[in-house]
C-alpha cells in the first residue's frame, strides 16, 4: 500500500490530481526514479523502464481512451523516439506518454522536472545561482518560525492557501515568455513562503538568483541566462535605493525570458501607483511604470475558513497547533512570533535595567525607520539616540554596560524565530548595525504615527553617516515635512558644506525666501543680480503684487523666471490676445500656454491653423483635444499601445464606458488601478448618491472613491466621518493627504493638524503655516 502524507493529500485536493489508494502498479518494484535523471539517455532509459511490458499499440489505445480531447496520439515513431533518446521531447509529448502509463497528474511532476533538467543541461549556471528546489527559504526572506518541542524542521509544513492556484498559474505563464509576478501583503502574512512554494511547484529545476541590490539586478539583466528566477523579496528595498530599480532593467529581464518574483507591502504598492498632484515632483514615476508590468497576487492578513481547515489537518506540528489556538492574532503572524515581539517591546519592565534600556533602543530604532531610515543602525546611533527615551533618573543610573544589556534584550529571539532587532553582518564576526522586525515596524507606524522625534534623535541620524551629503539632504526634507524647520536648515547647511549642489541650491533659496518674508525686496533685487533663486522669488513677488511693468522689463532682459511668470499672469487674467501676439512673434513659452488655452476652450480650428504653421505645442494639444472628442471605444482601445497621450486615452475610455452604461467594465479597470477609471467610477457613484458603494470601494483601498466620499460627507456636515475616510488614504495619495489637512485647518482642529505635521503628511506643514503661522512648534488647544 502506498502511504500518502497528510500534507500531500491536502495539496492534491487543492491543486488537483487523485489521491492514490490500493495496491501499487505491478512494475513498482522496478520503478525508475526520475529524480536521478540528468541526461537525455538517462531520460530515455527511465521512460522505457516505466513503459514496462506495455506495447506501442496499448499505449496509443490508453491515450485514445482519455476524456481530454486535446491529447496527442502516441504514434509508434513518437514512442520510439522517446525511449531511444533521439531528441529532447516536448512537455506535451511526455505528459501524454506518462498518462498512457497510468500516472496521475501529481505523479507526473518529478518526470517533468527531469525533462526540465535534461532540456537545460546545456545552459550555463549563472554566477551565484542555485536550483529553485535547493534554495534556502530563510535566505530568501521566509520568516523563521517559532520553535517548540516536537517541531523537527526549521519551518512548519506549508498550509496550502486559496491563492496558490492563481499564483502557480501566474508563475507558469511568466515562465513561458518572461514575466513579473508580485505577491502583495502585509508583514508576516506568508508572502515569501507562498511565492517560494509556488515556484518550487512550477519551476523546481530553474536557476534562482537573489541580487543584493539594484545594481546587481542590472548586472543580471546584462548577462541574462534563460530559465532563471530573479528573487526580489521586499521589493521596496530595491526601489528605495539611490537611483532605484530602473524599469529598463526589469524589462530586459523579461525580454530575456526570465521570471521576476517579488513581494511588497500594500502601503508601499499603493504609494507608488497612486496618481501624483499636478505640478509637483513625481518621485515614483519609474516605480509606477515598473509595477504595471507585474501580475499581482494578494495574500490576505488572515486565513480563510478553508485554509484553517487545512491547517487543522496538519496539526501534528506543535507550532501549527499553537498558531491555531491563538485567537487574538493572525495564524501566520503567530508562526513568525509577531505578537510576542509587540509584547516584548511595549510591555518591557521599566524597573528592570536591561528591559527599560532595551525598550529605549527598540523605540529609537523604530522611530528612525518610521521617518524613512532604512540603513542598518549603528552602535553609535543607538548610544546617542536611546537615552532620549528614558527618564533623567534612568539616564543617571545607567550602568557602564547599559547599551550591551539593551542590545541583548532587543535582539532576544521570540521562541527561536526573530527578535525586535536583528544584526546585519559587515563580514565574518563583524556587525554593520541592526534593523527592526517588519511586523514591529508596521505596529509602530500605527501607534507612533504622529509622535515627534526628540532633537537628539534627529541629530544622531545626521551624525550616523556625517559625510553623506545625499542622506543629509534627505533628512533635511523629512525634518521640514514634520515642521522641524530649524533642524532642516541645519542639516541642509551641513549637506551644502559637504559640496552637495542640491543642498547649496536649497540653502540659497531659503536665504532668498527669508528676504521676501522680511519684506526686504531691495535686498532681494540686489541678490537677484547673481542668484537664480532670488530671481525666481522676485518674479513671484512682482506678479503677486501686480507689478507687470517691472516683470516685463526683467523678462526683456532675459530673466527666464520673470518671463514665465509674466505668461502665467496673462493666462490667469484671461489676456489671451496678448499671449497670441507673443506666440506669433515666436515666443515658445507663450505658444505652449496658448495651446493649453485653445484646447481648454475646444478651439480645434485655431489649434489646427497654428499647428500647420509650426507653432510649439499646438499639434500635441490638438491630438489631446481630438482624443477627448472621440466617441468610438474601438478606436480608443486601438490607440492604447501606440499613442503618446495614453493617459488621455484612458480617461476618455473611462468617460465613454460610464456614458454608455458599461459599468462592469469600468469597475474592472478601476479594480486594476486605472486612475482614470477610478475617478470616473467615483463620480458615477456620487451622481447616483450611492454612498455605500463609495464606502465599499474606499474600504477596499480606492482612494478616488474615498476622496469623493469625504466630500459628500462634509457636505452633510459629517466632518468626523470625512476626516476618518481621508486619513485612511492620506498615506498613499497626496490629494487625499492635502484634502485631509485642508479640512482640519478649515475646522480649526489644530492638534489633529499638528499630528499630521508630526507624521510627515504631504503638505501638512505648509497648510499649518498658511493657516496658523510658523510661530510655535506645538499648537496647544487654543
Chain-wise SSE layout:
Elements (H helix, E strand, L loop, with lengths): L5 H10 L24 H12 L4 H9 L11 H9 L6 H10 L4 H15 L10 E2 L32 H14 L1 E6 L6 H12 L4 E3 L4 H9 L5 E5 L3 H4 L7 H9 L3 E6 L1 H8 L11 H7 L2 E5 L6 H8 L5 H8 L5 H5 L2 H9 L6 H18 L8 H7 L6 H6 L4 H9 L10 E7 L2 E7 L1 H10 L7 H10 L4 H13 L3 H13 L3 H17 L3 H8 L3 H13 L3 H9 L3 H13 L3 H9 L3 H13 L3 H9 L5 H12 L3 H7 L6 H14 L3 H9 L3 H13 L3 H9 L3 H13 L3 H11 L4 H13 L3 H9 L5 H9 L10
Parallel strand pairs: 2-5, 2-6, 3-4, 4-5
Antiparallel strand pairs: 1-3, 7-8
Describe the structure.
It contains 44 helices and 8 strands. The protein is mainly alpha-helical. The chain is globular and about 100 Å long. Helix 7 packs across helix 8. The protein is 58% helix and 5% strand. Strands 1-3-4-5-2-6 form a 6-stranded mixed beta sheet. A two-stranded antiparallel sheet has the order 7-8. The model is unreliable at 1-29 and 67-71 (pLDDT under 50). The chain starts with 5 loop residues before the first helix and ends in a 10-residue tail after the last helix. Among the domains are: 6-119, no CATH class; 130-335, Rossmann fold (3-Layer(aba) Sandwich), CATH 3.40.50; 338-455.
Summed up, what is this model?
With 782 residues, the protein is mostly helical. Helices cover 58% and strands 5% of the residues.
Amino acid at each position: 500500500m502506498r502511504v500518502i502524507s497528510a500534507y500531500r493529500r491536502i495539496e492534491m485536493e487543492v491543486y488537483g490530481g487523485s489521491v492514490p489508494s490500493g495496491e501499487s502498479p505491478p512494475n513498482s518494484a522496478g520503478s525508475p526514479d526520475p529524480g536521478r535523471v540528468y541526461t537525455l539517455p538517462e531520460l530515455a532509459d527511465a521512460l522505457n523502464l516505466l513503459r514496462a511490458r506495455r506495447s506501442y499499440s496499448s499505449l496509443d489505445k490508453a491515450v485514445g481512451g482519455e476524456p481530454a480531447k486535446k491529447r496527442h496520439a502516441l504514434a509508434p515513431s513518437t514512442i520510439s523516439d522517446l525511449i531511444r533518446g533521439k531528441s529532447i521531447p516536448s512537455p506535451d509529448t511526455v505528459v501524454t506518454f506518462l498518462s498512457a502509463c497510468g500516472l496521475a497528474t501529481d505523479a507526473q511532476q518529478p518526470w517533468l522536472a527531469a525533462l526540465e533538467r535534461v532540456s537545460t543541461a546545456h545552459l550555463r549556471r549563472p554566477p551565484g545561482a542555485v536550483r529553485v528546489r535547493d534554495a534556502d527559504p530563510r535566505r530568501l526572506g521566509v520568516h523563521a518560525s517559532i520553535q517548540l518541542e516536537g517541531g523537527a524542521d526549521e519551518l512548519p509544513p506549508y498550509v496550502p492557501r486559496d491563492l496558490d492556484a492563481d499564483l502557480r498559474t501566474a508563475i507558469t505563464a511568466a515562465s513561458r515568455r518572461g514575466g513579473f509576478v508580485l505577491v502583495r501583503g502585509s508583514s508576516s502574512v506568508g508572502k515569501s513562503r507562498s511565492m517560494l512554494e509556488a515556484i518550487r511547484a512550477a519551476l523546481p529545476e530553474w536557476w534562482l538568483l537573489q541580487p543584493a541590490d539594484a545594481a546587481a539586478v542590472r548586472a543580471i539583466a546584462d548577462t541574462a541566462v534563460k530559465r532563471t528566477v530573479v528573487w526580489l523579496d521586499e521589493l521596496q528595498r530595491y526601489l528605495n535605493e539611490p537611483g532605484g530599480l530602473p524599469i529598463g532593467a526589469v524589462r530586459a529581464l523579461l525580454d530575456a525570458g526570465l521570471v521576476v518574483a517579488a513581494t511588497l507591502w500594500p502601503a508601499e504598492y499603493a504609494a507608488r501607483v497612486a496618481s501624483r498632484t499636478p505640478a509637483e515632483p513625481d518621485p515614483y514615476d519609474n516605480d509606477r511604470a515598473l509595477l504595471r508590468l507585474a501580475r499581482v497576487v494578494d495574500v490576505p492578513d488572515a486565513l480563510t475558513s478553508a485554509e484553517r481547515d487545512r491547517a487543522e489537518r496538519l496539526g501534528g506540528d506543535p507550532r501549527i497547533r499553537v498558531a491555531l489556538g491563538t485567537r487574538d492574532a493572525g495564524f501566520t503572524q503567530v508562526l513568525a512570533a509577531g505578537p510576542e515581539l509587540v509584547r516584548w517591546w511595549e510591555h518591557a519592565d521599566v524597573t528592570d535595567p536591561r528591559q527599560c534600556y532595551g525598550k529605549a533602543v527598540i523605540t529609537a530604532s523604530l522611530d528612525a525607520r518610521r521617518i524613512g531610515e532604512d540603513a542598518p543602525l549603528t552602535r553609535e546611533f543607538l548610544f546617542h539616540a536611546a537615552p532620549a527615551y528614558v527618564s533623567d533618573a534612568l539616564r543617571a543610573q545607567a550602568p557602564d554596560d547599559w547599551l550591551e544589556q539593551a542590545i541583548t534584550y532587543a535582539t532576544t529571539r521570540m521562541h527561536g524565530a526573530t527578535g525586535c532587532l536583528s544584526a546585519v553582518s559587515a563580514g565574518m564576526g563583524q556587525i554593520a548595525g541592526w534593523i527592526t522586525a517588519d511586523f514591529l515596524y508596521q505596529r509602530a507606524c500605527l501607534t507612533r504615527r504622529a509622535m515627534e522625534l526628540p532633537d537628539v534623535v534627529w541629530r544622531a541620524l545626521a551624525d550616523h553617516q556625517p559625510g553623506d551629503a545625499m542622506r543629509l539632504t534627505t533628512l533635511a526634507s523629512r525634518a521640514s515635512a514634520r515642521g522641524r524647520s530649524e533642524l532642516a536648515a541645519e542639516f541642509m547647511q551641513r549637506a551644502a558644506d559637504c559640496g552637495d549642489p542640491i543642498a547649496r541650491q536649497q540653502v540659497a533659496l531659503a536665504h532668498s525666501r527669508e528676504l521676501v518674508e522680511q519684506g526686504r525686496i531691495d535686498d532681494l533685487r540686489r541678490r537677484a543680480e547673481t542668484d537664480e533663486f532670488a530671481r525666481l522669488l522676485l518674479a513671484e513677488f512682482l506678479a503677486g503684487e501686480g507689478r507687470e511693468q517691472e516683470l516685463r522689463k526683467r523678462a526683456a532682459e532675459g530673466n527666464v523666471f520673470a518671463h514665465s511668470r509674466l505668461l502665467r499672469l496673462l493666462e490667469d487674467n484671461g489676456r489671451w490676445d496678448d499671449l497670441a501676439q507673443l506666440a506669433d512673434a515666436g515666443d515658445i513659452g507663450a505658444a505652449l500656454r496658448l495651446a493649453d488655452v485653445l484646447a481648454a476652450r475646444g478651439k480645434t480650428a485655431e489649434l489646427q491653423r497654428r499647428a500647420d504653421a509650426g507653432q510649439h505645442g499646438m499639434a500635441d494639444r490638438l491630438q489631446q483635444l481630438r482624443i477627448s472628442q472621440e466617441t468610438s471605444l474601438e478606436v480608443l482601445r486601438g490607440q492604447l499601445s501606440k499613442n503618446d497621450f495614453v493617459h488621455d486615452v484612458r480617461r476618455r475610455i473611462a468617460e465613454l464606458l460610464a456614458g454608455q452604461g458599461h459599468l462592469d467594465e469600468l469597475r474592472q479597470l478601476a479594480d486594476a488601478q486605472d486612475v482614470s477609471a477610478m475617478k470616473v467610477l467615483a463620480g458615477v457613484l456620487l451622481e447616483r448618491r450611492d454612498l455605500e458603494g463609495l464606502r465599499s470601494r474606499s474600504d477596499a483601498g480606492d482612494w478616488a472613491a474615498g476622496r469623493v466620499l469625504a466630500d459628500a460627507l462634509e457636505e452633510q456636515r459629517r466632518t468626523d466621518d470625512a476626516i476618518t475616510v481621508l486619513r485612511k488614504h492620506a498615506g498613499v495619495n497626496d490629494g487625499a493627504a492635502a484634502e485631509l489637512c485642508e479640512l482640519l485647518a478649515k475646522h480649526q482642529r489644530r492638534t489633529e493638524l499638528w499630528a499630521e505635521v508630526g507624521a510627515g503628511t504631504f503638505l501638512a506643514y505648509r497648510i499649518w503655516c498658511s493657516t496658523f503661522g510658523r510661530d510655535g512648534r506645538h499648537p496647544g488647544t487654543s
